[in-house]
Recover the amino acids of this structure.
């Protein structure tokens, strides 16, 4: 319901889901879920992650390759992240990248490179099966500039091989 | 008492011969036992190195043969500080990590006896500094009070610690290579590369005179997205005017955006939009859901139960 929020979320939080079919091979179905979890409420992040996992499973059962991506405001040491990766339901592209991941560790350096969070909090997670990440990259867009940076986060880029 | 001991020894021997069966996969257990020759370590203990080398080089005994304490020739060479013989045994293929039944490695005993040259030789062969014996002691514990030796061990420990993550990565890498090969072999349809980007572009609510105002960042964000050419671009913190700018910049490449504002389900509040390169992917459908209890009662029921159980 538009505008709704729960648990300790500071503001309404949403996820966008898109279902895609490859234009070169109509049998190839891809579902991408994009989200931005709350920056304050740790409980809401965890509950939202569990809610998102159910959507992932639904889409997987429908035969699609599923990616869950976005700004989770939680890094690899968090319970949210642990829930998402528990029992191998989702895999972090950075843990499975066949070429070693490229770029800095943190994805939230702030506009002026203060490193707001030392951990990677922007993630590309995938349901294992037909997708294999060949290269996971955190783009260091903040090298040596006097101007304001394009964003206070770094873009995260993953090249998958789909079989 | 001697008689009792002798009877017991015979009884144990009988039991062993009754129940002993060669391990599967080794059809010639006798060769194994010949190679495992206690004399090797005994000669070493008595400094009879020529005999040790003769036994091993002739192929009648393994260089790693152990005595009753589980000690090897290398262990005794380390204890005695014979750097030359250590080199010879290593050249014959001796295992530098084989520990006694007490868990003592050649490196530990060399350190305990203050045999610096031997320690250097063992470290060169890759002996681990962080190995602990049965009492939890490492070579560094045994070297306490010997400054030169401690220096050597600490430097080696430092170097080995730096190498450790690399070893983990190699292991991870080997597993990853296997997955790729497996996928390539088992896949029947042509492979496709899918490039995915996620990027929190920071909401454009900053004032126009701010150094981080959207108008100063817009083209740089657009150029980044344009240059990397992802199939799917997931953005966060996007206000409607930002989304319109981005679609204007990327539209000519074939990108289309899905998503709504979180405040009203239309244009108000931040979007978490997804841009899709429609030259590669056709958009079948899309939806937005609020991460709250009221969004979907069925799903929330599960969460409610989960919440109670944790």
């Amino acid at each position: 319901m538009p505008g709704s929020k729960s648990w300790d979320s500071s503001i309404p939080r949403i996820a966008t889901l898109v279902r895609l079919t490859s234009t070169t091979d109509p049998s190839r179905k891809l579902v991408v879920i994009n989200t931005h979890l709350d920056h304050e409420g740790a409980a809401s992040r965890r509950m939202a992650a569990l809610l998102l996992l159910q959507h992932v499973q639904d889409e997987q059962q429908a035969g699609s390759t599923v990616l869950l991506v976005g700004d989770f405001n939680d890094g690899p040491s968090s319970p949210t992240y642990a829930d998402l990766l528990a029992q191998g339901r989702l895999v972090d592209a950075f843990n499975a990248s066949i070429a070693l991941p490229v770029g800095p560790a943190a994805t939230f350096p702030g506009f002026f490179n203060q490193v707001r969070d030392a951990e990677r909090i922007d993630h590309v997670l995938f349901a294992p099966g037909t997708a294999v990440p060949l290269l996971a990259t955190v783009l260091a867009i903040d090298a040596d500039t006097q101007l304001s940076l394009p964003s206070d986060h770094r873009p995260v880029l993953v090249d998958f091989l789909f079989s | 008492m001697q008689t009792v001991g002798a009877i017991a020894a015979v009884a144990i021997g009988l039991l062993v011969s009754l129940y002993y069966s060669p391990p599967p996969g080794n059809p010639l257990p006798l060769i194994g036992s010949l190679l495992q020759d206690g004399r090797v370590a005994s000669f070493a203990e008595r400094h009879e190195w020529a005999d040790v080398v003769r036994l091993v080089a002739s192929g009648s005994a393994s260089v790693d043969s152990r005595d009753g304490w589980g000690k090897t020739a290398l262990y005794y060479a380390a204890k005695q500080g014979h750097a030359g013989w250590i080199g010879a045994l290593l050249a014959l293929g001796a295992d530098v990590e084989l520990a006694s039944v007490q868990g003592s490695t050649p490196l530990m005993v060399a350190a305990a006896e203050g045999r610096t040259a031997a320690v250097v030789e063992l470290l060169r062969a890759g002996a681990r500094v962080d190995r602990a014996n049965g009492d939890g002691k490492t070579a560094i514990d045994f070297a306490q009070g010997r400054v030169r030796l401690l220096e050597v061990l600490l430097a080696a420990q430092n170097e080995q610690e730096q190498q450790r993550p690399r070893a983990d990565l190699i292991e991870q890498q080997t597993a990853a290579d296997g997955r790729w090969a497996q996928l390539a072999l088992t896949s029947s349809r042509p492979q496709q590369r899918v490039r995915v980007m996620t990027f929190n572009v920071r909401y454009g609510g900053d004032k126009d005179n701010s150094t981080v105002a959207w108008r100063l960042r817009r083209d740089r964000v657009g150029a980044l997205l344009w240059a990397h050419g992802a199939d799917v671009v997931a953005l966060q913190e996007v206000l409607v005017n930002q989304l319109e700018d981005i679609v204007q910049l990327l539209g000519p490449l074939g990108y289309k955006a899905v998503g709504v504002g979180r405040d009203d389900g239309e244009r108000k509040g931040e979007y978490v939009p997804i841009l899709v390169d429609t030259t590669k992917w056709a958009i079948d459908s899309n939806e937005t859901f609020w991460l709250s209890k009221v969004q979907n009662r069925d799903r929330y029921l599960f969460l409610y139960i989960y919440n109670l159980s944790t």
Summary: The mean pLDDT of chain A is 89. The longest strand of chain A covers residues 14-22.
